[in-house]
Write a structure and sequence with these properties.
This protein has 326 residues and is α/β, with parallel strands linked by helices. It has 11 helices and 8 strands. Strand 4, helix 6 and strand 5 form a beta-alpha-beta unit. The radius of gyration is 18 Å and the shape is globular.
């Protein structure tokens, strides 16, 4: 139970894989962000779903499967991301589930408090609408629009009236608000039709299958370059044969091996200022394989996240009230 008793990962003692508390990777479970490099933040929300619900249970399912990874010597990176990245688990954002209007302010406030403490935020969803307040917090803190690296079966840029709670429209709204720059952003694994790309570069799953992961990595790197970026991975980017536990599965997606190759090939070159992994719905899962895939993605990002490179671009002045500059 060291997750509850100490903030120092070097003082933790062994816990059985199937026991203990539900913090990600046995990270210290605390909301004291001072001195932490990355905070894992659960977003137990699925009121924006348009198909199968259940993603509100995703954060704890991902945490549960992360315990397996903490036993596997952090392959292929050979580091302990919890200790070396100074990772903490802040638990879940609280909001009134019967008052959906409380959700965005609750998440945005929680994320901005962490950012003001100098801590990066890695959100675990929850449905994909969770990205909306998380990106808002990161972009307002930076004071400039972010480039988006978006893994998904869907573009999530369908028409929005600016008020909807909808996991298929959040990125359109963020572009409309000037918080994402589509001209330097890329969407990977898409396999649903949307005739309005809003200026995003869309790399469809079929193109990846035909051209390969190396060509995809090169396209994504070239599109984003060295700009400050937000990374979002909807687990339905992976084919339902490998990740069935999600609300809106679409066949023809990436294999888990392809997803890891792309994730590990793209993320190390990015200046990542915020990230999330979303849409795990454990009630629809089989043997926890979807939650395991999501936990692996989170774990790998913790290993790859270059905090020094990110910090170089973290130039917002909190005194300006968070207005985007640029």
């Amino acid at each position: 139970m060291a997750e509850f008793l100490t903030d120092d990962p070097h003082q933790a003692w062994p816990t059985t894989t199937f026991g203990g508390v539900l913090s990600f990777g046995r990270a210290p479970y605390t909301r004291r962000a001072s001195g932490a490099g990355i905070a894992v933040l659960g977003i137990p929300f699925d009121l924006g779903t348009t198909n199968r619900s259940g993603a509100r249970e995703g954060p704890n399912a991902v945490r549960r499967m992360s315990a397996l990874l903490s036993e596997l010597r952090n392959h292929p990176f050979g580091i302990d991301p919890i200790a070396e990245r100074r990772v903490i688990d802040c638990g879940d954002v609280h909001f009134d589930v019967n008052r959906v209007e409380t959700f965005v302010p609750a998440v945005e406030t929680a994320a901005r408090e962490l950012l003001l403490a100098g801590t990066r935020v890695l959100g675990i969803g929850g449905d994909h609408f969770a990205s909306y307040p998380l990106v808002r917090a990161a972009a307002h803190h930076l004071g400039a629009p972010l480039s988006l690296v978006h893994f998904d079966a869907h573009t999530d840029t369908w028409p929005d009236d600016g008020e909807r709670i909808d996991h298929g429209t959040q990125f359109r709204r963020l572009v409309d608000e000037g918080l994402i720059d589509p001209a330097t952003s890329v969407q990977i694994g898409i396999r649903t039709w949307n005739e309005d790309t809003m200026g995003f570069e869309v790399i469809e799953a079929s193109w990846i299958h035909q051209q390969g992961t190396a060509a995809t990595i090169e396209r994504a790197r070239r599109r984003v370059g060295d700009r400050p970026a937000y990374v979002s991975f909807d687990i339905d980017c992976i084919d339902p044969a490998f990740a069935p536990g999600t609300g809106t599965p679409v066949i023809g997606g990436l294999s888990s091996a392809q997803a890891l190759e792309l994730w590990r090939g793209i993320c190390p070159d990015l200046r990542i200022l915020g990230a999330d992994v979303v849409e795990v719905a454990p009630a629809h899962d089989v043997s926890d394989i979807t939650a395991l895939a999501a936990a692996t993605l989170v774990h790998d990002l913790l290993c790859m996240w270059d905090l020094d490179r990110a910090r170089d671009r973290w130039s917002a002045d909190p005194s300006d009230g968070g207005a985007p500059r640029g």
